[in-house]
Design goal:
single chain; alpha+beta; Beta-Lactamase; 6 helices
């Protein structure tokens, strides 16, 4: 939105006009994420499954980052595996191949993010040496050319799971997300939802 304002001299005569701009689209996206969190907490209070709550959050984020899609994986109680738990926009063939995803330093995008407890970015699945070779062709066939994963952490840095975003283009998958708070927002939203849901809940595989 562009707003024009006059610049006046001492006599009150307009000597110049200047414009100020406000990115209303970015503001709307931020408000949408906040509304999604509020709705997620309402779902939890109403007794919804954690998987359904995370599906709701992924669907909301997908609408902001389209054509990219997102997914969430939750940590198994044994701490060594991640189970796909949300992400209706991700193709089922890819989801099935990730059941479960091992947690290790060189275990692929999500497993590495959980192991290191930090974000992992792959800008080109076709050439990145850290992408597991056995999943390279499968990923490309399912429209995944770049990817980004962030761990979902508690306040004391315990890993609850991971959030991932898949792009159909070979590029920095975070591009276009910065203004909305999405680089940090989803993991934090899902972490808060998980804690509100309550510890000790069984992950529905």
């Amino acid at each position: 939105m562009i707003r024009y304002n006059p610049m006046l001299d001492e006599a009150g005569k307009v000597i110049r006009w200047y414009a100020t701009g406000t990115d209303t689209e970015d503001r709307k996206q931020i408000e949408t994420l906040r509304a999604a969190e509020k709705r997620a907490l309402e779902m939890i209070v109403d007794g919804a499954r954690l998987n359904d709550v995370l599906d709701h959050l992924c669907t909301t984020i997908d609408a902001q980052v389209s054509p990219s899609v997102t997914t969430a994986l939750l940590m198994d109680p044994d701490g060594t595996r991640l189970w796909p738990s949300a992400g209706p926009g991700v193709r089922r063939e890819w989801i099935s191949a990730m059941r479960p995803a091992p947690v290790a330093k060189e275990a692929g995008l999500r497993g590495t993010a959980a192991f290191l407890k930090q974000g992992v970015i792959v800008t080109d699945v076709a050439t990145d040496p850290g992408w597991p070779e056995q999943y390279r062709v499968l990923a490309i066939r399912n429209g995944i050319r770049a990817a980004w994963s962030e761990p979902i952490l508690t306040n004391d840095k315990r890993v609850l799971g991971t959030f991932a975003l898949y792009s159909a283009e070979s590029r920095d998958p975070r591009r276009g997300c910065q203004a909305t708070g999405i680089p940090t927002g989803p993991g934090k939203l899902q972490s808060r939802s998980f804690r509100k849901f309550g510890r000790g809940q069984k992950i529905r595989q």
